[in-house]
Amino acid sequence: MNLSNAQEFSNQVLPQNDSGNYFHVSHQIDLKKEKPVLAENSGLTLILKKLWKEDIPGKKHIENYLRAQYRRNLRLSTIENSLTAIVSFIVLVKQDGKSCLEEVTRGDLGAFIEHEQDRGLKPATVRLKLDLVKAFVRYQIEKEVIPAEVLFKRMTIKVPDSLPKAMEIEDEAKLLSVIKHVRNRAMILLLLRTGMRIGELLNLQTNDIQLADKRIDIWEAQKNRVGRVVYFNEDAADALKIWLQQRDPEKMFIFYAGKRDTLTYAGARIMFCKYLQKAKIAHKGYTLHCLRHTNASSLLNAGISLECLRELLGHTSVEVTRRYARLTNTTREKEYFKAMGKIEKGELDGYYKFDPELQAILEKKKLFSQDGKKLYEQP
Fold first, then answer.
1. In this predicted structure, what is the pLDDT of residue 31?
2. 219 Cβ neighbours under 8 A, 6+ residues apart
3. φ and ψ of 36, to 5 deg
4. What helix, strand, coil percent values describe the chain, rounded to 5?
5. What's the average model confidence in pLDDT over 345-365?
6. Sequential DSSP letters for 211-279
7. Which among 26, 118, 140, 220 is least surrounded, fewest beta carbons within 10 Å?
8. Within this chain, do residues 205 and 311 fall inside the same structural domain, yes or no?
9. DSSP H or E segment with residue 78
10. How far is it, in rounded angstroms, from Cα 254 to Cα 263?
11. Is the pLDDT score of 224 beyond 70?
12. Which of 304, 330, 356 is the last residue of a domain?
């Protein structure tokens, strides 16, 4: 569809052209460049401006993909991360002498992986960027832009299954002992007692906190956008009460920096690192997210169920929560040292010894042979 002049659209979602590129009410058309011009208040404006500043092929196809993400109501941060990964990928494609997306091959994905690994990025980061690029490629395959054989076989990156890093009890006590600032103490204690993500904490508003019930309502989780309820105990409640009495009631967010309306993640991280230094535990590599791991580990050690912990942490799968059980299962630890104690004291008869209760059950189920034949292991 050709337009002779810039046209402002009505309050509907209308197609830009015959290729199926759609845009919202506040968008206009720049006819010379054949691309939409977004209104200043559009959340997508800055991201698309970054795209069109890049000297790479396939920008219209990339824009279509970003708009598709926007229509799916993905977070702007997710869309921006997608753009960053896609641009890195297309730059490599261009350096290989290719001038359009139709020329992309499976080898380009392999070259992208090697490039990101050579930059010294962690395997998890490389896998994340690869997933973002693969999602873009898959979309272009559906639009018959990129050949389907590019993703004919799976391409994955092995990531070490490392355990979550929780703060040791002694280090937790050292950290809290050096935090005297009212706001900062309330923040750290809430992170430790609720298991909230730092982004969720920084987005808290007054009506999210039910102080009498020691409860916080997280209407939309930062990572998976699923709402949940978390709780806190007396020491966090006391610290929060003091801060609420001192904070500016005109501020929208519970935690803010000085005269500003918000506190950034970078600001919170700098604050946390200063306290680690003061407590002389900075060399242990703790991060703000370790406070969430510490909360989960402590609750598991206290006997909370995995399903209950999953809901408190906001995990979509209990398998994610199960990683904490591998780290902090005190029952397993006690059973091991109890058994090892028997071994060290020589209380075993030979190499094997049946548990009497288990042996009685096996006999009752007639798993032992009546004529003395060999007992075979049951599947």
1. 40
2. 208, 227
3. -70, 150
4. 55, 5, 40
5. 60
6. TTTTEEEESS-TTT---EEEE--HHHHHHHHHHHHHS-TT-SBSS--TTSS---HHHHHHHHHHHHHHT
7. 118
8. yes
9. helix 76-95
10. 9
11. no
12. 330
